[in-house]
Amino acid sequence: MHNLAMLRLYRWHSAACKQELKATYKKLKPPAQRRAIREYITCNCPIWLTGSTDTETYPRQATGLRDWTAAEALKRSREAGAKDTAVHGPTLADCIQEFLAAHAEHVGARALQQYKLVLNRIQEFAHSRNRHFIQELDVDLLESFKTHALAGLASTSKAGAVGKLKFFLSESYTRGWIKEALALKVKSVVGVYEEKKPYTEEEISAILEQARKLNGGVSGYATNGPTFCLLLEFMLETGLRVSDAIRFDPAKCVKSKHLWIYSFQPKKQRIARASKYINAYLSTKLKTAIDTCKWFSAALPFAYRTPEGSELEQAVYERMQEIGKRCSVADCRPHRLRDSFAVRKLLRGVSVDDVSKLLGHASVAVTQKYYSPWDPRRDDRLERVAHESRSKS
User: Fold this and answer.
1) What is the CATH number of the domain that holds 276?
2) Cβ neighbours of residue 104 under 8 Å, at least 6 residues apart?
3) Distance CA 198, CA 216 (A)
4) For the whole model, what pTM was predicted?
């Protein structure tokens, strides 16, 4: 049976070109003239494509090309791709798009963007080595990708990228896109995390003093130094991330026996069926100061506009960078207030387990990874273990 599936290229002639061609073929009868104009390919008008292959239909669409040779190559690749799909399975590009669409339900926008960046990199790397189908991936290609395409990343970023790549490979194996469990064969990368750098007490005093002096501009945090200073004190006393601190709503605080309890959903958390809530604890002095200060907006004390996206977080960061320059504090940024909160608690004898809960970490292992150097109890435990082991010997 004759196969009618085929693709066809044609020029989308401009009005001027079409008029000129009509004059050229004026002696032809209308049907023959229309066919001659349609099949005329030596001009520079845009090239379009229409038709179908064995697996896909292409409505009329622009190729984005004007060179006929290049358009012919595109047509052949589409036709060959349709045939190859039946032999090699789905393309890597199609699998990535399908994975991202399904994964969007389980992670936040930021994590999804990170997956997209990593998978776009592996797609470009594979295509540069003439691998277009997911079943053409192998351990050698993936290890080369880690070595060369991820060479410029910090170890922590590289570890995260490889982890996301391995998750994609695991899902691909589960869904039958690949026949080999590549995720088990690709070596993970261990990230070397930089030691946290809390502020010294002298730096904290200098930062707060400069924050109170802000009084410039007609909008933003510089217009209200005392309240901006309260925002920094709030982060220092509660350990909240800046993304959660700017969304603080005093109306949601409940008075307990000793402190005010603020229960909230952290902005940074995995998408799950049950949302996670964290408790932050405010002294009466701080709560009263926030209630009676000049708020940045009628709805929230620390947000001068609706806190959507990360615009306000960036504004706090930029303001602190400027404050750092004025008081000669290097690397002056909001997250170091959270680090200072954690270190202060540990140095005052609070257990690392309790500090982990106050910070809202997913596990105490995360807290230990970042803050164990400041845990005096750790040294006491190690000394006791060493002593007891010696006594037994």
Assistant:
1) 1.10.443.10
2) 112
3) 28
4) 0.61
Residue type, 308: E
**Mean pLDDT, residues 296-318:** 92
For residues 191 and 163, the model is more confident at 163
What tokens does 324 get?
Answer: 């750092």
DSSP result, 112-139: HHHHHHHHHHHHHHHHHTT--BGGG--H
The letter for the amino acid at 132 is: H
Is 114 found in the same domain as 235? no
Give Cα separations from 73 to 44, 77, 78, 182, 202 (angstroms).
17, 6, 9, 33, 68
In-domain check, residue 25: yes
Domain co-membership, 298 together with 364: yes
The pLDDT confidence band at residue 381, using thresholds 50, 70 and 90, is low
Give me the percent of the chain exceeding a pLDDT of 90. Answer: 56
Domain range for 319 is 202-382
Task: Output the six-digit token pair for 24.
Answer: 């050229």
Task: With beta carbons less than 8 A apart as the criterion, state whether 51 and 58 touch.
Answer: yes
